[in-house]
């Protein structure tokens, strides 16, 4: 039962342009959503989170948007940089401890 | 700054052997999690501790798997009688309960297990 879905396994973007990574979920009880970035041979690194009571959270080049009615969230990276190339995981928290991950989207930012 | 550390980073073992992995969380974090990740998938939750208490275990955690956190600091994950299907990356994460940003979990580098 995959409660968090990232339907795009990969995304390629030109340096300087916007990267938009999408995530859908099914469980309306999730109370926080998080994005993690993962480089090869490393553990996932926390990027940004959003509470279910908000619809936007911004941190530098990274902005997460939450559409609760559509059960959809997205991560925007502007401007994209080659160092952003990694696998991005969407994750959702319920009861502040049970975290479910999507399968990940591999972002490639081309110089 | 000491993040989450895991040891060993890689382990190759023969089917039927027992293996044990260690995780040292961020020192002030009271929650510790174990995940398993296979190729092309996101991390799958196995179990978590708050201090020394194991509060939740996934259905993925068969009776061959056992985790401990005896003093509420480091944790060990043991797999007995390993099977080829146990081959995966085992990730440990820690967090601080009550953090206002939804208790983000901070991950270690993982232990990659290969069962031959």
Q: Would you kindly provide a written description of the structure presented here, covering whatever features stand out?
A:
Chain A has strands at residues 4-5, 10-14, 19-25, 32-38, 45-51, 56-59, 62-67, 72-77, 86-94, 98-101, 105-110. Chain A is globular, with a radius of gyration of 13 Å. In chain A, strands 2, 4, 5, 9, 10 and 11 form a 6-stranded mixed sheet that branches. Chain A has no helices and 11 strands. The model of chain A has no long low-confidence stretch (mean pLDDT 94). With 111 residues, chain A is mainly beta. Chain B is mostly beta strands and 116 residues long. Chain B is built from no helices and 11 strands. Chain B has strands spanning 5-7, 10-13, 19-24, 31-37, 44-50, 53-57, 65-68, 75-79, 88-95, 106-107, 111-115. The chains are: A mainly beta (111), B mainly beta (116). Chain A binds chain B through residues 4, 6, 9, 31-34, 36, 41-46, 49, 51, 89, 91, 93, 96-104, and chain B through 4, 6, 31, 33, 40-45, 48, 50, 55-56, 91, 93, 97, 101-110.
Task: Compute the CA-based radius of gyration of chain A.
Answer: 13 Å
Number of helices of chain A: 0
State the share of residues found in helices of chain B, binned by percent.
Answer: under 10%
Distance between the termini of chain B: 36 Å
Which percent bin holds the helix content of chain A? under 10%
How many DSSP-defined strands of chain B? 11
The structural class of chain B is: mainly beta
Helix/strand-derived class of chain A? Answer: mainly beta
Number of helices of chain B: 0
Topology order of chain A in helix (H) and strand (E) letters: EEEEEEEEEEE
Main beta sheet of chain A, described? 6 strands, mixed
- What's the main sheet of chain B like? 7 strands, mixed
Largest protein interface, residues of each chain? A-B, 28 and 27 residues
Order of helices and strands of chain B: EEEEEEEEEEE
Shape of chain B: globular
End-to-end distance of chain A: 38 Å
Mean pLDDT of chain B equals 91
Strand content of chain A: over 45%
**Can you give the mean pLDDT of chain A?**
94
Bulk shape of chain A: globular
Low-confidence stretches of chain A: none
């Amino acid at each position: 039962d995959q409660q968090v879905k990232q339907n795009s396994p990969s995304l390629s973007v030109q340096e300087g342009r916007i990267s938009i990574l999408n995530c859908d979920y099914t469980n309306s009880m999730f109370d926080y959503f998080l994005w993690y970035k993962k480089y090869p041979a490393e553990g996932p690194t926390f990027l940004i989170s959003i509470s279910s009571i908000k619809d936007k959270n911004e941190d530098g080049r990274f902005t997460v948007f939450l559409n609760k009615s559509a059960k959809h969230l997205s991560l925007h990276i502007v401007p994209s940089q080659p160092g952003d190339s990694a696998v991005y995981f969407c994750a959702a928290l319920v009861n502040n401890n049970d975290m479910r991950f999507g399968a990940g989207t591999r972002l490639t930012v081309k110089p | 700054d000491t993040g989450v550390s895991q040891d060993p980073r890689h382990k190759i073992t023969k089917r039927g052997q027992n293996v044990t992995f260690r995780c040292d969380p961020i020192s002030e974090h009271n929650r510790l999690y174990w995940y398993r990740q296979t190729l092309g998938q996101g991390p799958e939750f196995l179990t978590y501790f708050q201090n020394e208490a194991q509060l939740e275990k996934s259905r993925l955690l068969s009776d061959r798997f056992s985790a401990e956190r005896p003093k509420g600091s480091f944790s060990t994950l043991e797999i007995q009688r390993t099977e080829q299907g146990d081959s995966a990356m085992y990730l440990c994460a820690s967090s601080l309960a009550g953090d206002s940003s939804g208790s983000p979990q901070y991950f270690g580098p993982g232990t990659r297990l290969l069962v031959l």
